[in-house]
Amino acid sequence: MTAAMNEHLSSTTERIEQPLQTDVTASSGTTQVDLSSQVPVFLAAPVNCKLFVNKLTAQGSEYRLAEILSSRDTAAHGLEYYVHYTEFNKRLDEWVSVERLDFSRPIQFPTRLTQIPAREHEEKTEQNTFSKDREIENLRTSGSMTQSIQEIARVKNLNKIQMGRHEVEAWYFSPYPMEYAHSDTLYICEFCLSHYISSRQLSRHRGRCQLHHPPGNEIYRNEEISFFEIDGRKQKVWCRNLCLLSKLFLDHKTLYYDVDPFLFYCMTERDESGYHLIGYFSKEKESSESYNVACILTLPQYQRLGYGRLLIAFSYELSKAEGRCGSPEKPLSDLGYLSYRAFWTETIVEFLLSNATEETTIEEISHRTSITTTDIELTLSSIGALKYYRGQNIICLGDKVVEQWERNYEKRKLRNRTIVPEKLDWKPIHFTPSQLRFL
Length: 439
Description:
Pfam families: MOZ_SAS (PF01853), Tudor-knot (PF11717), zf-MYST (PF17772). By secondary structure, this protein is an alpha+beta fold. It has helices at about 5-15, 40-45, 120-140, 150, 200-210, 235-245, 305-320, 335-355, 360-370, 375-380, 400-415, 435; strands at about 20-25, 30-35, 50-55, 60-75, 80-85, 95, 100, 160-165, 165-170, 185-190, 195, 215-220, 225-230, 260-270, 275-285, 290-295, 295-300, 325-330, 385-390, 390-395. The strands form six sheets. A five-stranded antiparallel β-sheet has the order 6-5-4-3-7. Strands 12-13-14-15-17 form a five-stranded antiparallel β-sheet, with helices on both faces. Strands 9-8-10-11 form a four-stranded mixed β-sheet. The radius of gyration is 26 Å and the shape is globular.
């Protein structure tokens, strides 16, 4: 153990005035286990151990079971542990001091599995399977492929970012260069998305940066809200910076540096200093699955303001202009799923209240809204609107569903968070096979 570990071991042991004991029921009866003996074992090898940690909340604090993912020795705070709270989203993972660990309860130490040598042909099969899986992984270029387990398990490497006037806490690991790793704050230019390790470096950059909006074509403007279309092949650096930024807030997505196959649609808010990035969605130039969104994100500083719904609505407006139905690439994040389910519900209910007749079908709803029939069926089932009556399925909206739609509609009117189709200045881009071949 290091000197720091020995020091913390001594201080931790001193805080345990009486020997910690617990009753353990066995087949022979009840025995007592000395819990103080588990402390040095834990401090020697804490990774993958599970124990209760004092989790700070808005209401105070509570002890929750957590798994230790990493440890570090810092000059400012001493020994710290990176913990993942069991049954909580990874965005709540955090570094905690040793004082927040509960040693008064048993620690769950990881089980060491003994590897049994396999037969020669089994080894070859396993190696071949692994090789194929790796080959498939290497061929993936989608901007939102599900991550591997190793990628998901990575420790968050940034605490927070400074972007414009907003200071935002990072949620997940993002593969920024090593020199930025574990820095307290990463400073990001809100227009070109370049990243710097100090506010002084960012200030010098801002004096030279000529960009005041995303580097693409403005295809929509309604009051202060604008959308820009950016080609990943033409603006590689900007789009790669966008992917790095996005990865701080998206867990189950793999954002590669290969941005060529994608178009990025960025929503901005305009003021006297420029067009400030609110969120974006990416879209494959040619999707074999008819996805209209590959990856979607509203930056945390703009969440819960109706912008997420606006992004989704704009993606379906593009699908209408293309004359096709679309659906987001799966799997969706937890927040993404909730946002899409809310949008689908509001859109379908609005259509049924405004246009439905006794002959309305799911296919007609899909044709008018550009939502796929599968997503429509799932949405209607989730709100209990699909009924079986006299040998056939019917759509029947309950009073609570209608009341909820009316409340949400009034909120949207107050916020003015709607897409005006007449403001869209865009025509679908058609890529030839020869163009797609070089993506």
